[in-house]
Amino acid sequence: MSETVKAVKGIESESFEEILYRLLQAAPDDLDKSEGSIIYDALAPIALELFIQQEKFREILEQAFAVTAKGEYLDQIAEDHGLKRAPGESDESLRERILQQKRNPERGGAEADYVRWALKVTGTTYAKAIDMARGIGTVDVVVGGTIPDLVERVQEEINRRKPSGVDAVVRRVRMQTVPIIVQAIGIEAEKAKQAILDYTRTIGVGGTLYAARILSAVINAGAADASMVTPTENVILFPDAQIDPVVTIE
């Protein structure tokens, strides 16, 4: 958890009842503080207003940081970092682009720089740099996004920024088909299949498909027992590939 999130979450919120109790405790003990008393009725509206203002302050604070901001507030933060939201881009995707920029300052052509440059192009929602992909002095940049000419636009941006002599090639993320066959007992086939698909969505580009996690996902979804038919070993995706699972439940 980032320090910013800790800071926002570290601001304790009090309920209306807690605020009212604290105000009543500060009043002299010889006064009647029971519900309906003069002091109670006088302090209750104050407690309510303090509660409302407390929640408004928390909301304002959350919208001030990239890790917690949403909607137009996140757009404004993006603009501060030279970024714009692409059509149809979600808050989470834009947030990742902003945080990538903030956490990876330029370092003269490091892998993170190529990711940074790619994400500066509006329409890019994913970027990964592969150093020495085709030998010394080469960098491949794998991108995903929402516009048809994404590769051309990112290539132009990287050509403008990359160090002299570096052979940098931009290409789109490709899909890698992986058959997954599982024997499952005590669970509907569709439910087991959905559990597996939910797991595979967590695997990033160039990631690894773990057979044990497939079985774990099916068991956690309610299966009495499950066993792998294929794959029998973990599958490491190609560095520029996203998994395209073909799931069969027997």
What labels would you give this structure?
3 domains; 21% strand; three-stranded mixed sheet; 44% helix; 8 strands; 250 residues; disordered N terminus; alpha/beta
What is the strand and helix layout of this fold?
Blueprint: H1 3-9, H2 16-26, H3 38-62, H4 71-80, H5 91-103, H6 111-119, E1 124-131, E2 138-145, H7 150-161, E3 167-172, E4 174-185, H8 189-200, E5 208-209, H9 211-220, E6 225-230, E7 235-236, E8 241-249
Parallel strand pairs: 2-3, 4-8
Antiparallel strand pairs: 1-2, 4-6, 5-7
Helix pairs in contact: 2-3, 4-5, 6-7, 8-9
Helix content: 40-55%
Give the low-confidence spans: 3-8
Largest sheet: 3 strands, mixed
**What is the overall shape?**
flat
**Straight-line distance between termini:** 40 Å
Order of helices and strands: HHHHHHEEHEEHEHEEE
Mean pLDDT: 90
Look at the helices and sheets and give the structural class: alpha/beta
Q: What is the count of DSSP helices, taking H or I runs of 4+ residues? A: 9
| Cα radius of gyration in angstroms | 26 Å
**Percent of sequence in beta strands:** 15-25%
> How many domains would you count in the coordinates?
3
Number of strands: 8
Which strand order spans the largest sheet, edge to edge or round the barrel? 1-2-3
Give a description of the structure:
- With 250 residues, this protein is of the alpha/beta class.
- The protein has three domains: 3-62, no CATH class; 71-172, no CATH class; 175-249, no CATH class.
- The chain has nine helices and eight strands.
- The protein has helices at residues 3-9, 16-26, 38-62, 71-80, 91-103, 111-119, 150-161, 189-200, 211-220; strands at residues 124-131, 138-145, 167-172, 174-185, 208-209, 225-230, 235-236, 241-249.
- Strands 1-2-3 form a three-stranded mixed sheet. The chain has a three-stranded mixed sheet with strand order 6-4-8. A two-stranded antiparallel sheet has the order 5-7.
- Strand 2, helix 7 and strand 3 form a beta-alpha-beta unit.
- The longest helix is centred in the first third of the chain and has 25 residues, at 38-62.
- The two termini are 40 Å apart.
- The model is unreliable at 3-8 (pLDDT under 50).
